[in-house]
């Protein structure tokens, strides 16, 4: 598969934005020692800008890098897989016939969000304890819903103003 320098640069820039959105606004979660963040909003936007494959790559790399740099090495691989799967599934639904609808991407974001909630819950059950996994379902759900809600506002503005289309064409 041929990747142009422009395509690689756009994917790397989106991974950096996802990393920054994940690292800059953190709310600590005492029970796991982790945190919740605004990176999911950037992931949802990245998928719309880059498509399912490159969006998933940017999501996986940006979020995993945040775990690496944040001192959470045990979470690098789970995050790489979970965020990549979340983004890819969102993109697959957004690129299906739902894409003709203005909010078609939203169904993809919800489906990807459900996968994220299930994925992180399962990993926390395995890595920490069943109690910790179950106890943090509300926080990962709130993080996911916040990401979808903020993305909805941002994406609606970018779609209405036709900026999203112009950014995609860069």
Order of neighbouring strands in the sheet with most strands: 1-2
The secondary structure category is mainly alpha
Number of strands: 2
Q: Biggest sheet, open or closed, and with what strands and sense?
A: 2 strands, antiparallel
Query: What would the principal axes of the Cα set say about the shape?
Result: globular
- Give the distance, in angstroms, between the N- and C-terminal Cα atoms: 21 Å
What is the fold named in CATH at topology level?
Arp2/3 complex 21 kDa subunit ARPC3
State the name of the first-level CATH class: Mainly Alpha
β-strand amount: under 5%
List low-confidence stretches: none
Mean pLDDT score, rounded?
A: 90
Describe this structure in words.
The chain is mostly helical and 170 residues long. The protein has one domain (5-169): Arp2/3 complex 21 kDa subunit ARPC3 (Orthogonal Bundle). It contains eight helices and two strands; from the N terminus they run αββααααααα. It has helices at residues 5-24, 39-50, 52-69, 76-94, 104-127, 130-135, 137-160, 163-169; strands at residues 27-29, 34-36. The chain has a two-stranded antiparallel ribbon.
């Amino acid at each position: 598969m041929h990747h142009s320098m422009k395509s690689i640069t756009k994917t790397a820039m989106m991974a950096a934005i996802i990393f920054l959105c994940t690292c800059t606004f953190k709310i600590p979660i005492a029970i796991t020692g982790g945190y919740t963040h605004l990176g999911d909003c950037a992931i949802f936007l990245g998928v719309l800008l880059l498509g399912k494959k490159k969006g998933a790559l940017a999501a996986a790399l940006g979020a995993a890098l945040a775990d690496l740099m944040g001192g959470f090495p045990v979470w690098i691989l789970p995050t790489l897989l979970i965020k990549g799967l979340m983004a890819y599934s969102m993109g697959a639904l957004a690129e299906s016939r739902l894409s003709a609808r203005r909010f078609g991407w939203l169904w993809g974001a919800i489906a990807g969000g459900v996968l994220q909630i299930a994925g992180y819950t399962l990993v926390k059950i395995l890595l920490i304890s069943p109690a910790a996994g179950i106890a943090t379902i509300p926080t990962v759900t709130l993080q996911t819903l916040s990401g979808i809600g903020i993305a909805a506002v941002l994406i609606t503005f970018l779609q209405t103003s036709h900026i999203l289309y112009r950014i995609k064409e860069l």
